[in-house]
């Protein structure tokens, strides 16, 4: 695990990220808060591209919890069977839609606890929804962010909660909202798992990873 980088270095890293991409966006397609919750719930252990392919037609038919319940579990499965773990995910989406209708008047709530009361929605999913929809500077740590945080020293931590806390504690407030997407995109396209593209990395001189590639 790298050592925690100092404030000035972290500021410079995010200044470069912002210069390269001022408005980073998530890649999961959605048309409202509800479809974002569904898309994130479907994306566990699946690629965003794979989820988007399935949800493009699904969300034309079912873009509210009421319409999803009308479609039903079997109907939903027909749309998402190209996505891993689709049976369990279909069950969760139907259950969470029912909870939304019965307990939240069909609206997506905006507290972490309320979001996590929905079936299949864990801390990471709740943080993605808080960040992408409600523009709250929540940090959803996935495998990419965990790797980048630890390699660079931006946010070292033994587990995802420790990395989440390190991001919250160390990323300057003016970068906090977009930190999630800058880190995720960096991990997805540059600081990749097997052979990071250090030669093309804009923070190479600031990163602490000892096994940088050329
Ligand atoms: S220099 Fe290499 S290891 Fe460090 S952030 Fe860039 S790609 Fe990742």
Automatic annotation (TrEMBL):
Cofactor note (record): Binds 1 [4Fe-4S] cluster.
Molecular-function GO terms, alphabetical: endonuclease activity
So which cofactors does this thing need?
[4Fe-4S] cluster
Q: Which residues form the HhH-GPD domain?
A: 42-189
Supply the SUPFAM superfamilies for this chain: DNA-glycosylase
Query: What are the entry keywords?
Result: 4Fe-4S, DNA damage, DNA repair, DNA-binding, Endonuclease, Glycosidase, Hydrolase, Iron, Iron-sulfur, Lyase, Metal-binding, Nuclease
Give the SMART domains listed for this entry.
ENDO3c, FES
Q: Does the keyword Ribosomal protein apply?
A: no
Look up the EC number in the record and give it. Answer: 4.2.99.18
What is the recorded function of this protein according to its Swiss-Prot or TrEMBL entry? DNA repair enzyme that has both DNA N-glycosylase activity and AP-lyase activity. The DNA N-glycosylase activity releases various damaged pyrimidines from DNA by cleaving the N-glycosidic bond, leaving an AP (apurinic/apyrimidinic) site. The AP-lyase activity cleaves the phosphodiester bond 3' to the AP site by a beta-elimination, leaving a 3'-terminal unsaturated sugar and a product with a terminal 5'-phosphate.
- Record's protein name: Endonuclease III
Per the record, the gene is: nth
